[in-house]
Amino acid sequence: MAAAADSSPPAGAAASGAWEWEGKVVSPVAAATADEAWALLSDFLAFHRWHPRVAACRLASGTPRLPGCVRYCEGTVPLAGDGAAPPADWAHETLLEYDAERRFFRYEMNDNNMGFGLFFATFRVVPAAAGAGCELRWEFECEPVRGTPREALVARLQAGLDGMAARVRDHVLAARAAAASGTAAVAPAAGELKLDNSIAV
């Protein structure tokens, strides 16, 4: 059963029924079933465990997994040559809809320091169309991002999703090996496998 908040965009955001920017990125995970992947990725507050460019993700307000809850996400920042670190990317994001049965959640980015205005995204885990495994899908609808070409945003989303798919694959394979040997698998800790210094929303 789906739980949903009012997920309608603000008046004027897409009055014509089409967003200026919208799209989808997909990453296959042949080693995991949709249920296995969803079990790992369904926690709206565990983004930092699976996304390779997110250092922190925590509840800012509301009740976890219930529409209306807000998470705070912060990206990783490498030290510059002089040892100084630029400000980390950050964003507050509001959960709009959560459907465990259909394995998806939808959210809106709110205040942030990355140049985003209106931004809505849906994260899904679906069985692979052919063969074993599943696919991770990240769909977005947004206004153009200041200073960022659409292609660059799509590339950032794809890189982030590919990193998540790799972590899910590695965790599932490790869990199966651990089950076979009687040991316990451990989810990746924040700070591992970072790709660069930017949150990919």
Automatic annotation (TrEMBL):
Cellular component terms (Gene Ontology): nucleus
Q: Which CDD domains match?
A: PYR_PYL_RCAR_like (cd07821)
InterPro entries with a match to the protein in the record? LFS, Polyketide_cyclase/dehydratase, START-like_dom_sf
Q: Which Gene3D superfamilies match?
A: 3.30.530.20
What highest taxon heads this organism's lineage?
Answer: Eukaryota
Tell me the compartments it is located in: Nucleus
Primary location group: nucleus
SUPFAM superfamilies according to UniProt: Bet v1-like (SSF55961)
Q: Which PANTHER family match?
A: LACHRYMATORY-FACTOR SYNTHASE, OS12G0529500 PROTEIN
What is the protein name stated in its UniProt record?
Coenzyme Q-binding protein COQ10 START domain-containing protein
